[in-house]
Design a protein that fits this description.
Chain C: Keywords: ATP-binding, Nucleotide-binding, Transport. The complex is a heterotrimer of chains A (290), B (289) and C (249). With 289 residues, chain B is an all-alpha fold. Chain B contains eleven helices and two strands; from the N terminus they run αααααββαααααα. Chain C folds into two domains: 1-73 and 155-249, 3-Layer(aba) Sandwich (Rossmann fold), CATH 3.40.50.300; 81-154, no CATH class. In chain C, 37% of the residues lie in helices and 24% in strands. Chain C has helices spanning 42-49, 91-96, 100-103, 111-123, 139-153, 169-184, 199-202, 219-222, 225-232, 236-248; strands spanning 2-12, 17-27, 31-35, 56-62, 65-66, 74-77, 157-161, 188-192, 205-209, 213-218. The chains are: A mainly alpha (290), B mainly alpha (289), C alpha/beta (249). Chains in contact: A-B, A-C, B-C. Chains A and B meet through helix 2, helix 5, helix 11 and helix 13 of A and helix 2, helix 4, helix 5, helix 9 and helix 11 of B.
Chain lengths: 290, 289, 249
Amino acid sequence: MLTGNLLWVLMGTMLLGIAAGITGTFSFLQKQSLVGDAAAHAALPGIALAFLLTGQKDLPILMLGAGITSALSVYCIQWIVSFSKMKADAAIGLVLTVFFGVGVVFLTVVNHSPLGNQSGLNNFIFGKAATMTKADLTWLFLSATIIIIVSLLFYKEWKLLIFDPMYAKGIGLPIEALKATLTVLIVMTIVTGIQSVGVILMSALLIIPAVSAKLWTRKLSSMLVVSAVIGGVSGIVGTFISSTRTGLSTGPLIVLVAAAIFFLSYLFSPAGQMYKYFRKKQFRKQGEVG
Amino acid sequence: MIELWVIITGLLVGITCGMAGVFLILRKMSMIADAISHTVLFGIVMAFIITQTLNGFWMLLGAAVAGILTAYLVQLLHSSGIQQDAAIGVVFTTLFAAGVLLITLFASHVHLDVEHILMGEIAFVPWDKWTFFAITMPKAVWILLLVLLINIGFLLLFFKEMKLATFDSLYAASIGVPILFLHYGFMTSISFTTVAAFDSVGAILVVAMLIGPAATANLISKSIKQMFLFSMLYGGAAAIIGYYLAKFWDTSIAGMMATAVGLLFIMTLCAQKFMDYKRKALVSKLEGV
Amino acid sequence: MNALTVENLSVAYDKKTVLENANVTVPSGRLTAIIGPNGAGKSTFLKAILNQLPNKVGKVEILGKLFDPKSLVVGYVPQRNAVDWDFPTNALDIVLMGRYGHTGLFKRPSKQDKLLAKQALESVGMQDFAQRSIGQLSGGQQQRVFLARALAQNANIYFLDEPFAGVDAATEKTIIDILKSLREQGKSIFVVHHDLQTVKEYFDYTILLNKTILASGATEEVFTPEQLQKTYGGKLFMMQDMLGANSLC
């Protein structure tokens, strides 16, 4: 059952889960979770445009296209928020839908063109990990490893950037450059993941492990570890389940495994509902006595 | 006539969503609309699994319930201390993933096309007709008109209270305005709007039309009434511009309408910046004299 | 009759108890300061009185009755930064919101309501700004509009959350004059206040708060170095410094 190829795919989605767990934690703490969602949707026009311009569906070219539009969307959101009175949530929603709309326009053009012949680009919307080739996997391994290593290198600086940007500036850290690096890494994570999870659900992998980890710990270092573990486990378990039956998309399963872990954390973690419920009861009792 | 129905449907989506979007933007809840537009899929699939039919009524009901459930779950997570944006992200991706999975498990043999739900096919609208009171119009037009009426009704009844609860919920509560009732009432109307529109134009365009026109209108409006007017104008204009651009390039109509929303926003922002610049130049010139 | 009676009031957020076993009684017709260090639970105290917090135990009575928002006896002025001033509307419209409780559901504000709103705006010296977009008002002007809204409501008891935070001297004077004239009309006013130097000058009644009510009574009896030491603890050192520096001026 555990064929050689499956083993590689499992390794790949696990690495992806770990990478997303780590970068997702940073973006979550910067209150940018939904920016990741917009950036993931914005990968679609990049993929379609790269294909239209080059006529090739080599993964590196498509990934490059995805990365460019994805990063552009993040830049657009920041620009709109700082140069108009539009609030962040509206800017994110606007950029997300417009980029995705443009993506659908290009994708339709691709599908109508003779080159298109259902070029498989539609797979990027939901992801198909099971159909990944050795070459695809090599790219996944490479970029996931880079993301994890770079995150660890910048750990100290990003920590400061998130918790006390003024102080970070005061001691001479290049804040804007650090922010940009973080954005690039988040975009890289998205681009790495869209082939297996798809543009719509990629944001789940950035958000859910990080939110769950926050329920278990308040320390950044342990939060990163917990989030990476949750991401990795979701990747493995989700991919494994999807391999047991033909026709099961990988993306939704990975997300649902992560969601199940979130649900358990929501109920049973130290910051979870069970604990709160008992405390509330205790509080009411004290109130009645006092 | 067929072309006309497509344009009318697009216009109705633009106007209905433009109207519903105003308070959505002012209440800073745009991303909840995005979430609802994804989770309607879950509701539709559940409706199919329970009733085993593709009956439009049950689908709409399922979608509406899923929409309200989304708003409720986000509120639940948020009130238990999870950041609003993260709560939205968790809820909609989970329900969306569940929807996609349920389709592959239980509904792969029927025509429940995820891409259709996301991107819609407004070009098919004119062929699916309903007749009421001896008037025959496309189903989508009937449904959109109904939802437009519901939205107008909600606003006529609660405009004053919505305005106050949106601007200052603390004060509103202190004089007895039912803020929770208004919140869920409004979320219900957003769900109905999303559900009414996604069947014809797809979930993505619904969100584009809910957020874009109202957010653009907010840049230039001095009062809420003005904002309603501009928002509906932008919505309608985006629909018409998008339709003709799509026809010209032979591509997705819904996608092009969303693109048009973006174009109108960029044009408005540039015009506004240009006017600001000219005003500043004038002021510094006057000061120079 | 007492304006405010609070018995055994406790409030908890997530894990922390913010307010514990607070007890206080304030007679009507007073201008009362609520003071205490940052994080002492002053805003929480107000919100708990107005029944806006789910996790609360204890009893609160306003003018001898349990608080009922629909009675409109309470005019609440939230902190200025609690709302979004980019909201697309003008000053008069905000003041008109103070009449909504009287107008009732489904009805539009009447001519009478508009007249009262204009009068309220005039009484805070903002009549010339009625049609001005609220985003273009200064901090002090925004605060005046907020007060005008509470005036338009014509309540019997007023709660103001830090009305003097970040406002100009002229506005501060206007606000305190209005509050004093409300007191003359027999109304009761509660103000969350930060500036210890003006307490004696502005208020005839004082509540000292830090996690619970430490003292309450006429200002000259309560506002003493010993009581302040108890309320502010170690932070008093800094405060005395501040007072000393200012008394030099």
